[in-house]
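Deliverable D4.2, example record:
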Amino acid sequence: MVSEPEPTPDRPKSLKLLPRITAEALRMVWAASPRMLIASIALKLINGAGLAAALIFGRDLIGSVLTADTAGSTPGIGAVAPQLATVVGIIAVLGLVTAAGREVREILSETTARHAKQAIIDVARRVELSAYETPSFHDRLVRAASGEHRPIQMVDGLIGTIGAIASIAGIVVALLAIQPWLVPLLFLAGLPLLLGVMKAGQAMFGFHMRMTTVARARSYLYRLLTEKDPAKEVRAFGLGEYLSARHTVLYDQHMTELRKTTRKRFRIAVFSTFGLSVALGAGMGGLLALALSGRLEMAETATAAGALLILGERIMTTVGSIGDMYEAGLFVEDFTTFLATAPQTHGSSGSQPAPANFDRITVDNVTFTYPAAGTPALHGVSLEIKAGQVIALVGENGSGKTT
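Output generated by the structure prediction step:
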């Protein structure tokens, strides 16, 4: 008998699970293509370092021009040509690195999807045949297939989060030197934002969990209406209009649930960003009060205000990346859980090796019930077939002939 527990759609998941799920995603991507993963990370790091270098050399170039202008002389193009060439060269290299990174990422994404598909195939070909008679197995199979790109999304999110945290660190150092009280204020205000993206991720994951059966039915109807083989029977029995209407009803149900989910996510976003907005306003107000009272110089005020706004934006970006990782992580966990059910669903068929020769096959008072059914498909069946004998099983649809 198949044993595969169905996950609860809206179960809360702690952020503490994120490192473990991220590690699982990294292992999957690494198993798919370690060389491409290393290349992708290296290109992203080169891109980040190149951007910093372009800013530094660009600052020096502008500084050289301003210094010469302050001194009352007009610098010739030859004086700044080396610096200009350096900046242009860095920008050109950044363009090439970005293009290479995009193509490497595309290959890595498809390689990871291929690896995930093969893992799904390995599970599907080992499970007991009775597993295919359970709706829960089909639902989980569909979700696993739709989540094949989630691991690479988590890796991308991880790299982006690391880069954002690095930029936050530099801004924090600057603010600590000017007005240290601003830093904990913003970080505390970022906590509701973090909780908000977690709840938003859970809401979207719950939507996909609830809609899996509907999506599977809709996909089946779409195939019946668009593929060649079923088209003959659909037209012969005049089922086109009925099946199309059924497909529309299921799609309407999908869109209704999607609108509910997006409205819920929007409400979460409004409440979670409110705290950060209040903190930014309080910080700016505090800086203005200090400047107007003469306790803070205008230069320091402007620097702190600029750093405060940038830090707020970086916190939102970082929390957003973590939220994307968390949401993708829920799908990755569902995917890896599906793969882990293979030992539970794979069992002995209980059949003995077929004899080399036989003169008859006999079944006596056989009863069989499909795992998801409430009534037996076969009940009290007795049958004898002699070697070489050809028989015909005649009965209405659903009478158990195929079973």
